[in-house]
Write a sequence for this structure.
């Protein structure tokens, strides 16, 4: 499985792929190779390669790859508490992701304003931003899977927002750059075009950096709850008797 950095919206822990010791500090020092789907009847953890590929958890019961796991009463209690705590964390993670979309949009608007202040005058850029933000937030609100609001998804959303405004910027500055050139300011025209091009090539990285800085305190505030999940899974096994590691910690 390709590694994916655990960052931004780690709140529910299941953002997949990278070794826990390689995760940044904002990740609470944990990682998971599973994606999580929150269903009304169960929590479902899935990954494509290493067994168990599927883990189902509901109301104190546990099944891996379709096989029920025999649990003692105390283990049933821990599974039930694990599920309850994850369900408590999920809306908090989604709220962080949703707020992150607003932060990304503001950062993109700042990128546009810095590149070409006149691009904001018509209101079209703000209209496009508002439409994209509303669409992404609807997707996050309706989603049942961490694939839609984990770190990789947030980066993809940031790129969607940048991609939306790039053509508008290019179009808006075309006439302005032409006017500068016709007035003899070739250097000014070139600088304007370069600033707009930089929004497309480097804007996403700057937007993501702002996202990480803004969301880090809220993510870290959830770390005690995340680490409690690690404690609750301790000692649990899959249907083959192997330790169940939905969440892994750094060594």
């Amino acid at each position: 499985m390709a590694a994916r950095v655990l960052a931004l919206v780690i709140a529910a822990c299941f953002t997949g792929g990278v070794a826990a010791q390689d995760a940044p500090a904002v990740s609470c020092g944990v990682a998971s190779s599973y994606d999580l789907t929150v269903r009304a009847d169960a929590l479902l953890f899935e990954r494509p390669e290493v067994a168990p590929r599927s883990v189902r958890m509901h109301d104190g019961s546990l099944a891996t790859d379709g096989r029920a796991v025999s649990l003692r009463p105390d283990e049933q209690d821990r599974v039930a508490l694990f599920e309850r705590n994850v369900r408590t964390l999920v809306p908090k993670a989604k709220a962080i992701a949703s707020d992150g979309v607003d932060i990304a949009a503001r950062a993109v608007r700042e990128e546009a304003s810095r590149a070409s202040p006149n691009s904001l005058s018509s209101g079209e850029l703000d209209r496009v931003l508002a439409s994209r933000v509303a669409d992404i937030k609807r997707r996050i609100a309706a989603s049942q899977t961490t694939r839609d609001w984990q770190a990789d998804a947030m980066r993809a959303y940031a790129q969607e927002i940048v991609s939306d405004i790039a053509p508008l910027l290019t179009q808006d500055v075309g006439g302005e750059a032409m006017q500068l050139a016709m007035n003899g300011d070739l250097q000014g025209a070139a600088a304007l075009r370069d600033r707009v091009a930089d929004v497309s090539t480097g804007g996403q990285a700057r937007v993501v950096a702002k996202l990480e800085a803004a969301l880090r305190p809220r993510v870290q505030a959830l770390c005690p709850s995340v680490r409690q999940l690690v404690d609750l899974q301790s000692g649990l096994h899959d249907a083959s008797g192997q330790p169940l590691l939905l969440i892994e910690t750094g060594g």
Remarks:
- DSSP finds five helices and seven strands in the chain.
- The mean pLDDT is 77.
- The CA atoms of residues 5 and 18 lie 6 Å apart.
